[in-house]
Structure formats: structure tokens, C-alpha cells
Design brief:
Blueprint lengths: L13 E7 L2 E9 L3 E5 L21 E5 L18 H14 L5 E6 L1 H12 L4 E7 L7 H13 L4 H5 L3 H10 L9 H8 L10 H6 L5 H10 L17 E6 L7 H11 L3 E6 L6 H4 L1 H16 L1
Helix pairs in contact: 1-2
């Protein structure tokens, strides 16, 4: 396939808004090729933190968008309107707004949860899916693997230099710490090192991100990200690339990536060495190569 651009003004390079499902959705268009929709994770971060994504804009017209109540998008002040089904409906409404019969989807973490759920519901509207360190099943298997990975960090140099870090972080994560409900920034200040293979990258990476604590409260109340997708993944018919950092404690490649790949016949699993929850930051060349090779094969 050869794509040189789009005549649709909604797909002109730059920032746009769309009125969908009762709110104003903000999105940014970059790159050239078939349209790829890229939602923010849904629970608070703005999508601007993901621009640019290595390996995507070279082959696709990437539409990065802020999900409801995140970033520059508005959203209802009703926690009942932040279920996974609402986010899936928003993806489809944006696809219709952009006048696209079929699209690629990509998403990270909670965004990966969204795009896989979309694939389960609307496989005939997809060219393919790239799920990056996606939440598949927030179950006991995942919790056991998370705790194992956290405890393994105790002998690593950064944590030996900061001996109280892990215990303080786990107290906050379990809700046993004193004080009121922490903000997203407070949680990431206390636990951010866990998200990276190189924990020293955490401070700068999270400082560049924007968060919305209100939408976090709404999504927690609605149970967003709580659905176990494993039994439904075989319904996905679109080609699917699963990318995980080998040192991701949050959405690890064992309880999430390998289990997803085992039940999803259309999937390819790439585990990137030396990367945590954000592999495009820690291993941009490996990440770009994985996306580029997969997109080249699927588009061919």
C-alpha cells in the first residue's frame, strides 16, 4: 500500500476537536499512511506524553487523542460514564467522525486495555492492533507476579541506596499509609522508580506528563480496567502486536503478555529487553523496530 495523505480536513496535521458522545474530544494528527487511533490510558494521563511514538508515524497517520476528561478533552461529571464500554464507544465514534471504515489501533497500559476491548467488540472495523504493556487481567496471577518483581528489586543498586523506598511505596500502594487519598503525582513520586528498568529515568519521565485526578476517581468508581479480557481475546480477528518490557512490574510480560498471546491466535508477542512499563522511552530503537516490522508485514 502507498499512502501520501488524506483529503479529509479532520485528518490535517495538527490539533483538532470532535464533538462525540456528549463531550468534546481533543486529538492531534501526525504522520502519514493508514489511520491509527491512539487513546490516552483513560485513568488520568494526557496523550501528549506519548507524542511521538517511535515506529508509528513513519507508517501511519497517527491520531493521538485524550480520552474523556483527560488532557484537553472534556467529559461528563458522572462516574457512571467511565466504564470500559464508554471508552470503546468513544473510539468508534472518533472512527466515524474521521470517516474511516477500518483503522489501526494502538494503546499503552489502560489504553491497551481499551484497544483490545475494541477488537473484541468491533473486529470488522480494524486493520490491526498494537497493545503496549496492556492490562489484560488484573487478577491474582498478576498481583503475585507484581509482588515478586517488586521484591526482586530490593537487591538492586538504586534500592540499596534508598532502603526505605520499597516499603514506603508498598505501604502507599496497599493503602496502609497515613493521610488522605494521594494524588496521582504523589503516588508516582512514591512508586515511579518501579516503572523503569533504570529507575533514575522516572523523575524526568513523569515530570513531563499531565494528569487528571478527577477522572482517576471516576474510573475507579466505574471499575474501568477491572475486566478480565483473557476469555474474550480469542474473538479478536485483527492482527495484533503485543509489546511488553521485560522488566515491567505493572503490566508484566508473564501474567499479561504471555497469557494473552497464548489465547489470541492472531497475536505476535515482542518482549523488549532492558525496558519497564514504558519501553518506547527506555528502548526506543527496539520499540520502533518492532512496530515498523509488524506494520510493514500487516500493510503488505
Amino acid at each position: 500500500m502507498t499512502f501520501v495523505g488524506h483529503s479529509n480536513p479532520h485528518l490535517n496535521q495538527g490539533e483538532h476537536t470532535a464533538e462525540i458522545n456528549g463531550f468534546t474530544l481533543h486529538y492531534t494528527v501526525r504522520g502519514a499512511g493508514p489511520v491509527l487511533l491512539f487513546p490516552s490510558p483513560g485513568w488520568g494521563p494526557a496523550v501528549g506524553s506519548y507524542i511521538p511514538m517511535p515506529g508509528l508515524e513513519e507508517r501511519c497517520t497517527v491520531v493521538y487523542f485524550d480520552t474523556r476528561h483527560s488532557g484537553k478533552s472534556s467529559g461528563p461529571e458522572d462516574p457512571g460514564q467511565y466504564t470500559l464500554e464508554h471508552f470503546v464507544a468513544d473510539i468508534d465514534a472518533l472512527r466515524i467522525h474521521l470517516a474511516q471504515d477500518r483503522v489501526f489501533l494502538a494503546g499503552h497500559s489502560g489504553g491497551g486495555h481499551q484497544v483490545l476491548a475494541y477488537g473484541i467488540a468491533h473486529g470488522d472495523r480494524l486493520l490491526g492492533i498494537i497493545a503496549i504493556d496492556a492490562i489484560i487481567a488484573a487478577d491474582d496471577v498478576r498481583m503475585g507476579e507484581m509482588m515478586r518483581r517488586i521484591n526482586e528489586r530490593r537487591t538492586q543498586p538504586f534500592y540499596l541506596e534508598h532502603p526505605a523506598y520499597i516499603d514506603n511505596a508498598m505501604a502507599l500502594m496497599s493503602g496502609t499509609g497515613a493521610g488522605t487519598q494521594p494524588t496521582i503525582e504523589q503516588v508516582l513520586d512514591a512508586t515511579g522508580a518501579f516503572y523503569f528498568h533504570d529507575p533514575k529515568l522516572a523523575a524526568d519521565a513523569f515530570a513531563a506528563m499531565e494528569f487528571d485526578d478527577q477522572v482517576l476517581a471516576y474510573t475507579q468508581a466505574s471499575g474501568f480496567q477491572s475486566r478480565n479480557l483473557l476469555p474474550e481475546l480469542p474473538r479478536i480477528t485483527a492482527p495484533t502486536l503485543l509489546i511488553y518490557g521485560d522488566d515491567d512490574f505493572q503490566c508484566d510480560p508473564v501474567s499479561q503478555g504471555e497469557r494473552a498471546h497464548a489465547v489470541l491466535p492472531t497475536s505476535q508477542l515482542e518482549i523488549l529487553a532492558g525496558a519497564g512499563h514504558m519501553p518506547w522511552i527506555e528502548q526506543p530503537a527496539l520499540f520502533a523496530a518492532a512496530c515498523d516490522a509488524w506494520l510493514e508485514r500487516v500493510q503488505a
